[in-house]
Amino acid sequence: MKRVKIFCLLLVVGLVSQEGKGQLKPDFFPEDIDAWDEQGRCNFCQPGVRNRSRSRGLALVYDLQSAADFIPEDARLASAPTRISQISLLMVDVKIPLIVKENFKFLLSYKYLRERYAFKTLEGNRSSIFQLLSDFPLKSHALGFIASKSINEDTYLAIQGKYANNGNYASAISLRSRSAIYQVRGVVGFKRTEDIEWGVGLNHRQSFRRINIIPFLVLNRNFSSQWGLESVLPAYAFLRYNLDDRNILLFGPQYVSRSYQLSNPEVPDDPFDYAINHSEILTSLRWQHQWIPWLWSSFRLGYRFNFSTDFESRNPPVETFRADPTDSPSFQISLFLSPPRLLAAPWTLPP
Question: Does the reported pTM lie above 0.90?
Answer without folding.
Answer: no
